[in-house]
Amino acid sequence: MHSGGQVVVGVDSSTGSLAAATWAVEEAELRRVEQVQIVMATGDRSTDDEAWETVSSILSRFSSRQPGLEVTARVVHGDPADVLVQLSDTAELVVVGSRGRGPLAATLLGSVSAKVATHARSPVVVVRDHRSDGPVVVGLDNSPRSRAALRYALDAAARYECELLAVQVWEYVEPTPIVPPLEHELVELRDEALRGLAEQLSGCAEAYPNVPVHRIAQRGHPVAELAAAAEGARLLVVGHRGRGGFAGLLLGSVAAGVLHHAPCPVAVVRDAAADS
User: Fold this and answer.
1) The CATH number of 6-127 is which of 3.40.50.1970, 3.40.50.620, 3.40.50.300, 3.40.50.150?
2) pLDDT score for 260
3) Alpha-carbon distance 222 to 228, whole Å?
4) Looking at residue 130, what is its pLDDT?
5) CB–CB of 39/80 below 8 Å?
6) Closest Cα to residue 17, out of 40, 33, 37, 50?
């Protein structure tokens, strides 16, 4: 039985697009949605034939999927990011590849993916190399908006039947460059991070009894630590526009760093309640 809804995957002429489409179709099957829409957007009508050839080639890979899942292809005229953001209004999920190359490439890891992740109304997943095992990793920061990321991550872990690694990254900010931190100060900061994790994860065991949850309070830089935690992971989940920590820097270097360096698909989750 399918749940309705659709997954939208933005593609271009790059090899990474096939990986994104494959991930999107597999995710749709796990979610039991009714439709995957493969979309290629181009602002140049003279490339329509090439665009249709690209999406048709990708579509042909998924001709024999599970009953009830419809995989379709479209070529849309317009800016790729604007098209995907518009489609996110009615999508359950939007998926893009990690980078684009070729004459029709949208350079999805650059301005397009950043714009889609920032403005889409649905969660956005940026796909590079992916695997069918490993944990789900979620970056938390004590912000109300990181709760949406946690919910998404827990749902994903339940769907994948895997464990969840909940990571809170903290840094010691030295008051002056010549004064090293005292050991008890570092212990206090680590304990504070662990308390924050405990508060955010309160009730998760009852709501998701089949998802093992492991708490990690790690000192360091968010990009490096989240990327390291995601080694061997099936998915890394981060929140959109949280206050503080990773999510608060989503539009800056941290988000760009995670999207560039994470060794697995990255889900960027927006808290709809925070937009109201």
Assistant:
1) 3.40.50.620
2) 78
3) 10
4) 81
5) no
6) 40
